[in-house]
Design brief:
The structure is a single chain. The chain is α+β, with helices and mostly antiparallel strands and 370 residues long. The protein folds into two domains: 255 residues, Zn peptidases (Aminopeptidase, 3-Layer(aba) Sandwich), CATH 3.40.630.10; 108 residues, Alpha-Beta Plaits, CATH 3.30.70. The chain contains nine helices and 18 strands. Strands 1-2-6-3-7-17 form a six-stranded mixed β-sheet, sandwiched between helices. A four-stranded antiparallel β-sheet has the order 11-13-9-14. Helix 1 packs across helix 3, helix 3 crosses helix 9 and helix 7 crosses helix 9. It is globular and about 80 Å long.
């Protein structure tokens, strides 16, 4: 039987940061592990070094499939110093250490271990259990978008995502709107006619955005809408007045809100010479807290841990934003990683939580596909 803790440690030791990507090495280990335990598996290297893995535990064909979703990439280790090797993949004081331990190679391993146990059942479940492990989720959901192009959405009967939740249940995630602001100036030279400095124009725009509070409907499980500038670029030489400067803006808000409304409010505070264009939009995903699928997931958590999980919302996005767009399927996020650990230095994950989550995943599958 697969030990999910040891598998997590092995996966953490394989770097798969996005950027630059390169999840293939992780995908190969996961695919090989699944094949070794007798699970039908497809490794799809859809771009050089970028690969999805799909595994299937066949059911009796009486119910739609349960999809267990996790991504194989991680965010970079970052420039801040770690107190240990960022890809240590060791276990200290009951916690696996290294980038991806919490977000979300622990969930990949727990799903694999759960699938191993489900595949050993004497009687198959009423429906398939499909493992959907993707590349490139951290930036733009590359792998999930590729699955959509392949028609994967028709396979989804229910969707269980292993993003970090500290074994609580997440039923809503924010919509993510990415914009590019472009400031246009007039080229000049510091020794003569100075022109109009596009970087200074963008500085005024950023100052205006810092003071902006989006007037959008709230949600009882979500923090208020947010606007953040994540990257800025401009200028050609230190002694030349820049005539162009761009900034990338991350906007997050709850479900049921037209992104055009957020764009209009942002555009209204920008100074002249600054324009906006949309570069990406990931819609919000939401499940009713009282739905049968949430009840099944909550019952599985309680049965294993003895506590009732808290129902929460999150500001992060998952592959569900892409894979569930335009379809109706039950949705929940439940993972062994610690909520709030994503992207932090000194990332770790609890070995006990990984084992518990494996048991929970098995019970969810058995109860939902009974």
């Amino acid at each position: 039987m697969i030990d999910p803790v040891q598998l997590t440690a092995e996966l953490v030791r394989i770097q798969s940061c996005d950027p630059p990507g390169g999840e293939l090495a992780v995908a190969q280990v996961v695919a090989q592990t699944l094949l070794q335990i007798g699970i039908a598996t497809e490794l799809d290297e859809f771009l050089p070094g970028r690969a999805n893995v799909i595994g299937r535990v066949p059911g009796r064909g009486e119910k739609p499939a349960l999809v267990m979703s996790a991504h194989l990439d991680t965010v970079p280790a970052g420039e801040m110093p770690w107190s240990f090797d960022a890809f240590a993949g060791d276990i200290v004081d009951g916690r696996i250490r290294g980038r991806g331990a919490s977000d979300m190679k622990s969930a990949v391993a727990a799903f694999v271990a759960a699938a191993d146990r489900l595949n050993r059942r004497h009687r198959p479940l009423a429906g398939d259990v499909i493992l959907a492990f993707t590349a490139g989720e951290s930036a733009n959901c590359l792998g999930a978008r590729h699955l959509v192009k392949q028609g994967f959405q028709k396979e989804i009967g229910a969707f269980l995502c292993g993003e970090p939740s500290t074994l609580d249940l997440i039923v809503v995630e924010k919509a993510i709107l990415w914009l590019e602001a472009e400031a246009r100036g007039e080229m000049g030279h510091v020794s003569g006619a100075r022109g109009v400095n596009a970087i200074e124009v963008m500085a005024d725009a950023i100052h205006a955005l810092r003071g902006l509070t989006l007037d959008l409907p709230g949600h009882p499980l979500l923090s208020p809408p947010s606007v953040a500038v994540g990257r800025i670029q401009g200028g050609t030489a230190v002694n030349v007045t820049p005539d162009r400067c761009t900034a990338e803006i991350d906007v997050r808000f709850g479900p049921g809100i037209d992104p055009a409304e957020a764009i209009a409010q942002i555009a209204a505070v920008l100074p002249p010479r600054v324009s906006l264009r949309t570069t990406d939009f990931k819609p919000a995903v939401e499940e009713r807290p009282d739905s049968p699928f949430i009840a099944t997931c909550a019952g599985a958590v309680t049965a294993r841990t003895g506590r009732k999980p808290t129902i929460k919302g999150v500001s992060y996005y998952s592959d569900g934003a892409i894979l569930l767009d335009g379809i109706k399927a039950p949705f929940a996020i439940l993972g062994p990683g610690d909520l709030g650990m994503s992207g932090q230095p000194n990332e770790t994950a609890s070995a006990d939580a990984i084992r518990a989550c494996t048991d929970i995943y098995v019970k969810i599958a058995e109860d939902w596909l009974a």
